[in-house]
Amino acid sequence: MNTAELLTLFTREQRIEVNFPDMGREVLGSVIRQQVAFFERLGQNFEWKAYDYDPRLT
Questions:
Q1: Distance between CA 41 and CA 22 in Å, rounded?
Q2: To 10 degrees, the CA torsion angle through 11, 15, 18, 23?
Q3: pLDDT score of 27
Q4: Contact assessment for residue 31 and residue 20, using Cβ atoms and an 8 Å cutoff
Q5: DSSP codes of every residue in 2-57
Q6: What is the C-alpha to C-alpha distance for residues 38 and 46, in angstroms, rounded to an integer?
Q7: Phi, psi (degrees; rounded to nearest 5) at 20
Q8: What whole-number distance in Å separates Cα of residue 17 and Cα of residue 9?
Q9: CA-CA distances (angstroms) from residue 1 to 5, 8, 10, 12, 25?
Q10: Which of 26, 18, 12, 27 shows the shortest CA–CA distance to 49?
Q11: Cα angle: 32, vertex 45, 47; to 5 degrees
Q12: pTM, whole model, 2 decimals?
């Protein structure tokens, strides 16, 4: 398995192909705050990760 295949598999299986199309920096903070609040209400930890191979937000 090459690097590209491994990243594709990781994204599909671990990130569940979550996609925020056309999300720019102006809305990212709001989305992250909403996600953190959701998991806090459930009493669970939440961590938002961005990887070096993720598309850059504009």
A1: 28
A2: -80
A3: 75
A4: yes
A5: -HHHHHHHHHHHHSTT---TT--HHHHHHHHHHHHHHHHHTT--------TTSPPP
A6: 9
A7: -120, 80
A8: 10
A9: 6, 11, 12, 15, 34
A10: 18
A11: 45
A12: 0.47
Q: Whose structure tokens read 């398995």?
A: 1
* Joined tokens for residue 24: 């720019």
CA 56/CA 43 separation, integer angstroms: 31
Name the phi and psi angles at 14, rounded to 5. -105, -30
Highest average pLDDT, of 9-13, 20-24, 42-46, comes from 42-46
Please report where in the chains the tokens 């209400």 appear, as a residue: 41
And the tokens for 6? Answer: 């491994």
